[in-house]
What does this fold into?
Amino acid sequence: MDMIGNRKTAKLLERIADSGKIANAYLFLGPQGVGKFKAAMLFAKKMVGDKGGINPNLILIGPEIEEKNGIVKKKDIKIEAIRDLQHKLSLTSAGGGYKAVVINEAERLNLTSQSALLKTLEEPNKKVVIILVSHNEKKILATIVSRCQKIKLGLMSESEIRINVGNIGDVEEIVFWSAGRAEMAHSFLINAQELEYMREAKKGFLLILGGSIGEKFALAETWSKDVADLLKKMDIWMIFLRKAMLGEARIKNLSASRALRTIEEISTEIIKLRETNANAKLILENLFLKI
It folds into this structure.
């Protein structure tokens, strides 16, 4: 399989696919940016036969993006998506082969959706493979997890990232920002704007640390309008703070203890933004006052 990094996992998936001994359900786990979704899609396509174009035997489910009053936010995966899936699985597959389902960000399945999915898993079809992709196993019902074969993808070492990057682009900067995440490193290579985005996110964070109250609140108002993008920025701040805590990034007045305290504060607010309908602007303003 044409995966970036996680060679052992790639070989394992190849062996599973070639053996014909396919489990009914898999759970692809690992940190964000390591290539879980890509690995799941490659595995699914191998099951159904990848001939290019739209394949009716490959079903993809994920959270929808909602824009309301100028604010963009990811929605939970609701029961309707699972009911639609159940209907599709009740139909005969094209060509009589496998049907593969990939549920991306499975931790966003709400409780009702998970309960409905569990019923599908309890009545397995030998020609159906359901693949859940998640970075947070704890958000998935234990009864679902127990019915899945786990496939774990991990971080790469800095030396492995360097080997994969080669002499293309800003190697050390790519190594720094990818933080061991192979898929993220690859995205920097194919899209220079992604690396520039990281730089801008860092600049914004430094302004938060040293800016005036007015500057901080102005950023809170701007960033709160796109929660999905805000969460992406906050993930970048976390990378930067972890590097600072380990002494790999030096910033004036940002000690290791302050970096750790800030990580804890941001982690708390990320959970609120992802799991509640709290006002993003107020969350940011309170966060910026604390850090």
Summary: The two ends are 44 Å apart (CA to CA).
